[in-house]
Amino acid sequence: MTGFYGYKRPDGSVGVRNIVAVISAMDNTNPCAHRIADIIPEAQAITTPFGRTQIGHDFEVTLRTLAGIGRHPNVAAVLVLGLSLASANELAGRIRPSGKPVEVLGLQEAGNTMALTADGARIAADLVVAASTQSREPCQFSDLVIAVECGGSDTTSGLAGNPTVGLFADRFIDAGGTIVLSEPAEFMGGEHILSERAVDPEDGKRILEMVKWFEDEAIRNGVDMRGTNPTPDNIAGGLTTLEEKSLGAIAKGGSRPVVEVVEYSEKPSKQGLVIMNTPSAACESMTGLLGGGSHMIIFSTGRGNSIGSPISPTVKLTGNPNTAISMKDNMDVDVSAVVTRGLPLDAAADDLWNDMVAFAQGKLTRSEVWKEEQLSVSRFGPSV
Amino acid sequence: MERTVVMKPTDNVATCLVDLKAGDVEQIRVGDTTTTIAIKDDIPFGHKVALADVEPGEHVIKYAEVIGAASQAITRGEHVHVHNVESIRARGDKS
Fold this sequence. Notes:
Chain A is built from 15 helices and 14 strands. By secondary structure, chain A is an alpha/beta fold. Chain A folds into two domains: 19-131, Response regulator (Rossmann fold); 140-370. In chain A, strand 8, helix 6 (155-174) and strand 9 (178-181) form a beta-alpha-beta unit. Chain B has 95 residues and is mainly beta. Chain B has one domain: Archaeosine Trna-guanine Transglycosylase, Chain: A, domain 4 (Roll).
């Protein structure tokens, strides 16, 4: 299957969902964004606990992420809230080039939070009604950007879950798609493999530098990274060292050349395997992947992990037969037959391809249904 | 159904696909050959067993890559985990 039914956007991109986003530009309008989404359940609140008095690169990352979520192809229309219209407009101005409807409201201009909630709910209602008239149309599956994540890893992640995802990644790239692999701290021990696969030697160097930065951070802080990574659940699952975890983790990126390295929430410009520089905490990393425009996230887990991303449907996959049973309510794809019945990885990857097409054209993921969704934009400096 | 898996022929550990018990004797496939190993510890599903003796400081190999160094002598058939292997990377505690 090379086609799927998706939503065509004014900028030429295609979406797998048709979401109206109510984005709060900073901490203090978060309650209003949530209230509006409570009144209009078809709208999705996007909030961050920060945004005020951030400076420099740190502020730029927050703005880039929120703007990236607004421009995201899975988003049909946006309402931006700010403490003042000026702060709302600063963010809205970065979303408008996408050509989609973007509305703004300021709390100070509205008068108070009840007025902002009422005004916002009316606008959100209008946007939801308008978005509901758009139908899915035939699109190319390979026009999508799919991110690959893993969390709650154990040794089945390296044996079944991640190799299945990696094989899917290779096939998706061969069909013309783009795969984003993130969390360079969890390349540690296997970074030379990815570095050698970089098409541009400068990117290869950058991969090594990114990993070294995280390693130096651990050393600068005088800590043994084993205190936090591998995590206690990783260790219980049989993973002994970060190196072992990393070698299993990079398997989900498949085997194709690395065509580009991007920063947190930066949108890939090339087709193929792309590496994004994000911290290893899954929510932070997934927020960067979302900000960078990934349409969907495949999240491989061993011991079990429930987290999903709002906007970007997160497909939870496990190769651990015990987790497939205990976490059935949260899992979308079960590849444990690779471990229990010797199911060939090829067959598992075939199934995953069909699953991903189904999710792309509207099949709901477990994390969407349960609302197991979380956002956290990484911080790279203090507020002042 | 295999009870253990060796990722690459140069590895000195195998991963258990079932819970192994001390005293079990396992036929373990390494590349094109099969080796017989007497299991010395109870080893849970997903954990590793040594295919060879490993001296303290020697590398532990999985996926044909270094995953750490032995922190004490490991003998063939023993459970290989955090009690006898340590990471080489990001060791701020050693700097």
